[in-house]
Protein 1
Amino acid sequence: MTPHFDQGRRMMNSVRKWAGAAAAATLFAAPAWAQEAAATAAPAAPFVPTAEMVNKGDVAWMLVASALVLMMSVPALALFYGGLVRAKNMLSVLMQVLTIVCVAALVWFGWGYSMAFTSTGTPFPSLFGGLDKAFLKGVDPTTFAATFSNGVYLPEYVFVIFQMTFACITPALIVGAFAERIKFTPLILFVVGWLTLAYFPIAHMVWYWAGPDFLHAAPTDTGLLWVGAPSTSRVARWSISMRASPASLAA
C-alpha cells in the first residue's frame, strides 16, 4: 500500500469515530432537551368565547323559533284542547294551559335552566345539574351558549329563552290526558314536581354538553345519554381533529 492510501484510511477512520461520538452525544442529550422545552413551554390558555363568534342571523332565527314554539302553547294548544271538551269547561282548560305555561317559565328561570344545562354543584353531573345558575345567576349579556359548531355561539339569554319554550309546552301537553277530571291546584303542583323530577333531569341527560370547542379539554362533560350515544364519540373525535389539524384551519 502507498503512504497516501494509508493516510486516507486513517482520516476516514477518524471521521467515523468523531461522527459516532457526535451521534451518541445527541442521542443522550435529546431527552434533556425535550424536558427543557416542555418546562419552558407556556400552558395553553383556556378557550373563551367572544362576541365575534355570535352571528346575528343565528340570533334572529332562534328568537323567531322561540316565538313560534310559544305560540304553539298559547294560544294554539289552549284553543285546541278547549275545542275538545264541553263548552262549560273550555274556559277551565284555557286557564289550565295558560297557567301551566306561566308556572313552567317561572320554574325554568328559578332552577330549571341550572338543573338542565350545568354540570357543577351536583353529586351526579351526568344525571342533572346543580343550582349554580339558579335564578339565572351568572347569566348576563356577556355570557354565551355553545352550539354544535366550532367557534359559533349564541348569547346565553337567547339560549335560555329558546329552551324555556319547550319546558313550557311539554307539561301543557299533559292537560289533554285528564281534561275535565282534575282540580286546578293539584294540577299546578303536579306540573312543578314533574318538571323538577322528570323533565329537567332528562333534558340534562339528553341535551347538555360543554360544546365542541371544549371537548378536547373536557370530553366527558356531557349528559348521561349524550355520553352513551355511539355517534357522539365520532362527533368528539371529529371536533378534536378539526381543532388540531392545521390543514382544516387553512381550508
Protein 2
Amino acid sequence: MEIAKILNQMKVVVTTDLSKKSNGETKYLRTLKLKKKELFVAKDFAELLGYADTHQAIVDNCKKTTNLKLVLNQVYTTVLDKSTVKPYRKALGTKWATTQLIQEPDIWRLIIKSRLPEAEKIESWIMEEVLPSIRKNGFYISKEISDEQVSNLVEEANSIYEERRLFDLEHRRLKSVIYGELKKFGATEKQIGGMFSRMFQNLHIATVGKINKKRNILVLG
C-alpha cells in the first residue's frame, strides 16, 4: 500500500503549494521536492491523522525530523539569500525556517500510532499481513497481484540471481588472468589494485544497473 493510496482513501489533496491550509471542506498535505527527495510538512500529516497535540506527536514518533532552513542549506552551497528564501517566507510566514519536515518512514510511524479509523486499518494490515509474511517468506506480495504476476516475479528473481552469479564468476576469472599477465611485466600489488579498481568499476556499474532495472520483487500494494 503506497502513501498515495492511503492519502486517496483519506480524501487528502497533496500539494506543492506551501501556502495551502486545510479547511472544513478540503484537507491538504503540503510537500516539498528537493534533489529528488520528497518531504512532507509534519504538522499537516499529524493533523490529518487526528493527533490533538501535533507537536508532541511529531516529537514522540518521528525520528528524522528536519526543518526547511536546514534542508535549503543542504541544497544550496552558498549562503541563503533573500531571493531564495522569499517564496518560502511568503507561503509560510515568519516561521518558515522552523517548519518541520519529514520523509516517508516517519509518516508510517505516525500512522501506526494514530487512533484514526483509517490509520488503524493500515496498522492492522502492516501488523497482521505484511510483517508476518516477511518473517515467514522473506517478502510480502499484495493480494491484488495475480498468480501469473507472482510467477513472473519469481522468474525475474531467478533470472537476476543467475545474471549476478555469472557476472561474479566472469569477474573473478578475468581478474585472475589479468593479474597473472601484469605480474609477468613486474607490476606491483599496489599498481595492480589501482588498475583493477578503474578497470572493473564501469563494468560493475553497467552490469548492476542492468540487473537493478529488473528488481521489483517486494510488492507492497
Protein 3
Amino acid sequence: MKKSGLKREDIFLETKIWPSFYENEDAVEKTLERLDTDYIDLLFIHQPAGNYIAGYRLMEKAYKEGKVKAIGLSNFNREQIQEILDTCEVAPAILQTEVHPYSQEKELKEFLDKNKIVIQAWYPLGHGDRNLIEEGVFAKLAEKYGKTNAQIILRWHVQPGNTFRGCWHGSKTEDKREGGLCGAVCRDTAGIYLYQLLFLCAAAPDCLLLDSGHGDRLSGIGFCKGCHP
C-alpha cells in the first residue's frame, strides 16, 4: 500500500481470518502488523470451520475498537448466517460467496436483503472454462452497449446492489485456474458504472434464465418476454 503512493484513506483494504486463528486472541492485531496498517476496511471470517463463533467474536471486538470498519462472512450458508445473526452483537455487512449468472442464489439473496447483508461475489465471471463469459446473450448485449462480455456480466452483479471480488495479489494459482479471468475482472471493472442494462431487467431476477443453481453450464438460455437484446 505504501509503495502505491496513495493515501491510506483512498485504499479499501479487505482480508480474512483463517480458521486456525479463530481462537487466537491476537489474530486481528497480528493481521494489522503483517499488513502494516492501523485499520482494516472489511474483515471476513474465512469459512464456517472450527470455532467460527469465536472467530466472529474477535472481529466484533476489533470493530468496537475501531480496528475494523466492517465485518463479513465468507462461504457461509443460510443456516450458518442465521446462527451468527442470532448470537452476534455486530451484524455482518457482507457475505462473500460464489455468485454468477449460472449460480444466482436468488433465495439466499432474498434472505440477505431482509437482513441488510450485501453479497460480494467471488468467481463473478464463473469458473475457468469461459463458457459463461462467452455466452451469446452477453455477446449481444456487449455489442449493443459497446462493452466487453465481462463488463456486461460485472454490471449484472452491481446493478441490483451486489458487489464482486476483484483481483487479490498472490492469487496466481487462481488466475491460472480461471484461465486468466482474474485479469479480466481487473481490466473491465472501470467501464461498468456509466450505463444501465435496460434489457437485463434488474427488477426481474428471472429475466436471464441462466441459473442452474450450482455453477454448471446450462444448455438452454432464454429471456423473459420483451427483454431480449
